[in-house]
Amino acid sequence: MKKNKTTQNMSSLLMFVFAVMFLILSGRFLYIQGTAEVAGISLHDWADKKRTSSYELQAQRGTVYDRNGMELAQDRATYRIYAIVRESYTSDPKEPKHVENSQETAEMLAPFLNMETSEIVSAIEKAKDEELFQVEFGVNGKDLSQEQRDEIENLKLPGVEFIKESKRYYPNGMFASHVIGLAQKKEVVTKDEKGTEVKEFITKGVIGIEQQMDDALKGEDGRISYKRDKYNTKLLKPEEVIKEEQDGNDVYLTIDQKIQTLLEDAMSQVEEQYNPERMTAVVMDPNTGEILAMSNRPSYNPNQIGNVENWYNDVISSPFEPGSTMKIFTLAAAIEEGLYNPEEIFQSGKYRIDENSSINDWKIGGWGPITFREGIQRSSNVAAAILAYDKVGPEKFYEYLQAFRFDQPTGIDLPGELVGKLQYTYKSNKITASYGQGSTVTPIQQMMAASAIANDGNLVQPYIVSKVVNSETGDILQESGPTIVGNPVSAETAMQVRDELETVITSEKGTGQMYKLNDYSLAGKTGTAQIPDPEDPPYMNGNGNYIYSFLGMAPKDDPELMMYVSVKQPELSGNELGSEPVSFIFKTVMENSLHYLKIEPDNVIKEDIHTVKIPEIVGVSLSEAKERLENYDLQLVTIGTGNTVKMVDPPVNDEVLPNEKVILLTDDPKMPDLTGWSIRDVMRLGHLLNLEVEIKGSGYAISQSIEMGNGISSKNQLVVEFVPPNKEIDSNNSG
């Protein structure tokens, strides 16, 4: 009886406990049902999040163009590959949607991804073991081209899919790289409307125009979300929400692709031949301040970033002691003050600063008693010192240096501009400032100052952004124009300075004879700047241990172009002069650019260089087109097997120089042999055929990704490798 009672009590206790637990659980379920919350988390929101899939609609970054509409930086479609490994994703075994055979799939993918077969198999099998839905293949599976994606898709591998992305691409490679700059993807952590952290990659400009105009170029990403099942398939009622992306605006530069190409090719040749420590060059329209070309060496290819020697745009970011090009402004100050008499005699050779120090001309002992005109022609330091210190006076001369704005930045629309420093404390540096020693300036400061000499006394601000355009509507959102920022000298003074500087080129005594142009009068000044030596002050010695430079403007009476070139520490041999690499760059670019701009020659000293106007040949038979061109000294290249000319480059009515490459496009175009072609001609071909062209290297073409004779489609990407002249091919074969 006692045992039954105990059992009865235990049973009652257990029933009570179960009753309490039932009431608690029931109450909890009723609470959850009524509030739809667990631990403060809304079940509606949790379920909605689980059923919702979302992804970005990536905005396209704006395109950077040259002044004539040539693409300099653009977004290019790339693809990221992934493999679906979950077997349950396949609903019909006859049409598998996942990777069935890891080994076979890996063997097919390995050549495209530059991976070992075993690596791909390992990645797929590991994802299967971890019951993942899909697997990617790291950096090897990213940035695939349209052509690579198409080739892989043609293999029809089950489970292999692609995600389309965009990558910043620079069609011309090293072309104006310090100007255009670089945009790269950066990881950014933001929060959505619910406060949840979201990691995303955005393309951001880090240097050059890409950085300067980042706000205009970047655009705004959109987003799409929808309800889906566990296989990421949309539900019948997906409740789709779309926020449209807004593409970035397009930016047009003042850079001229043809002039820039002339500059890049000339600098590459000098780099190959002389291996200088540094080079800078800039071409400007002195009437407007538009920068038509700008380049530095060492440079880099923004498509293939490796060990970059120099990120700085030295034209705007590297102040240095400029040397004798500063005598231009010493001469201008003396003329403006009415204190320059070109026929006045002075004693060259040495100028005594005080009892213990003096300055010397570059030729020991000088040239004896000479006129100030001859002093300018011979680049006499003593002539500059007398003009600045004894005639104009140090205080007044300093005012002129300020009027030419050597004490402040130019304000050019590029990031990273630095300003030089005028050392003007002691008598010695007040004197040496007259011939460019002691004080520092940048090349762009010299260009802006010299614009007053070329442009009748008007100092114009240099600029490089021409306009900003809405990429969808074509509306101009921002437009730049000439800005006059000072008038340090009169138009009469500017003209007289140009007249005197012309004699630096034309006189037998002038240091600038090597820079004489064939068809155009030229005013300019040479410079040979000493380089500070930190180990054995004050300056380096020895052949080639200088910065050789030239600043010139042409035609002399009404300059249309102005150019500055500097070459630091070229490797000279034998009797070579430091001015030789500088003059090669200057003359090549200036002469050809003036002809390209159709500036009327004013100083023809050789037989006239005739130009050829492309006749009306579009729509005529190929044989007739060749007949019309046969009497001209042109290189004809026929693209295609058709009998009728569909397009021609250069276009009809364009005037071209002799030996220009003329491309005749007919039906069914085939890829020609590009060996020996210049970068400029390859880019023309790409533009004509609507091809994406990737440039590797500089100089002249030695290999191409699309073989000669293959068909051409606008979906193709053409990769061409170039080498400097005299390295692999004879540059005389180029166009």
From TrEMBL:
One of its GO terms (molecular function) is serine-type D-Ala-D-Ala carboxypeptidase activity. Keywords: Membrane, Transmembrane, Transmembrane helix. The chain crosses the membrane at residues 12-31. Pathway: Cell wall biogenesis; peptidoglycan biosynthesis. Residues 608-668, 669-724 form the PASTA domain. It is found in: Membrane. The keyword Ubl conjugation does not apply. SUPFAM superfamilies: beta-lactamase/transpeptidase-like, Penicillin binding protein dimerisation domain, Penicillin-binding protein 2x (pbp-2x), c-terminal domain. It catalyses: Preferential cleavage: (Ac)2-L-Lys-D-Ala-|-D-Ala. Also transpeptidation of peptidyl-alanyl moieties that are N-acyl substituents of D-alanine. Its EC number is 3.4.16.4. InterPro entries: Beta-lactam/transpept, Beta-lactam/transpept-like, PASTA_dom, PBP_dimer, PBP_dimer_sf, PCN-bd_Tpept. The keyword Transmembrane applies. It holds the Pfam family PASTA. GO terms for biological process: cell wall organization; peptidoglycan biosynthetic process. GO terms for cellular component: plasma membrane. Belongs to the transpeptidase family. This is serine-type D-Ala-D-Ala carboxypeptidase. It comes from Aquibacillus halophilus.
